Amino acid sequence: MPDVDITESDPIQLPLESDDLLINLEENKSAIKRFLADLKLVCAKSDADESTLGLGLRISYELIKPYGGQVTVLQTCLPNKGLGSLNDESIESSTQVF
User: From CA 85, how far away is CA 79, in angstroms rounded?
Assistant: First the structure.
């Protein structure tokens, strides 16, 4: 399964036309099940320590905007680059109980 690398850029550039990303669920059910089964292995092998989640979500929103739907995010590290970035200190300070 190829990885998609997203770098910060403004304005955003969509990688494909939205129509190219749509699939028929019934026709592709076995491929989707295979993908979900392999996902655990893909994440286990990940050595990613950088994530631009904010930009990725922005691009995802633009791609599905004409159709509606939802975006599911699976990450192996905190979003720590660009729009919406977090770090360990910001997580710890937001969860402190006084």
Answer: 5
